[in-house]
Amino acid sequence: MHRRTVLKSAAALGLVGSLGSFGLSSAFAAGKIRPGGKAALIVVDVQNCFLDGGTLAVKGGNEVIPVINALAPAFENIVVTQDWHTAGHASFASTYSGKKPFETTKLNYGTQVLWPDHCVQGTEDAALGKDLKVPTAQLIIRKGFHKEMDSYSAFEEADHKTATGLAGYLKARGIKTVFVTGLATDFCVAWTAMDARKAGFEAYVIEDATRGIDLNGSLAAAWKQMTAKGVKRIQSGDIQVG
């Protein structure tokens, strides 16, 4: 199985923290969800390319950062993802003669939305947003780095066959529940949440900690699909912090 998981030390990426201890309790306080040692926060693609001024800026994308920062202290376990494309990637409209961004093409794994060039490996555009503060993050998953195949989900490539290793990583640490945040709601967030369910995790999407692209109704469609898969839709105020 080809893995695309990139494990980096927190220090190497400017993230402070360690694996620490993983407790086994999860409780509710005052009607709010209190994440315990069996829960993980997944922060999806909060990168310059998707923020204001980026190559594929998501409207309101910067607004998720303070929400995620405020949530982070509630979680012992945090995973961060990065879109990490090669130049000339199969998902870029510029790769194909006569194609424009947001059109589609057929690839061997199905229909592919074509995007503006974005999040190219090693560029400032692909870097995490400088204001993102997730001090207990232990793992970064870099995805979409295979030139011939896109990857929205933190768990699987777009072929729905090639696993990233994230499910195994979480299960080895006793994680049962994931809370998904980041960009964009209707693509990488949705696919990550649905694949979390597929892998056997309870999955929540924290709506006000996400923003969508909403391409031809894709946002409403994504929420419908997530609900059908058992993904739960909540707000940051539903989480007990502190």
UniProtKB/TrEMBL annotation:
Residues 1-29 form the signal peptide. CDD domains: nicotinamidase. PROSITE patterns: TAT. The keyword Signal applies. GO terms for biological process: pyridine nucleotide biosynthetic process. GO terms for molecular function: metal ion binding; nicotinamidase activity. Pathway: Cofactor biosynthesis; nicotinate biosynthesis; nicotinate from nicotinamide: step 1/1. Residues 39-232 form the Isochorismatase-like domain. Its EC number is 3.5.1.19. Belongs to the isochorismatase family. This is Nicotinamidase.
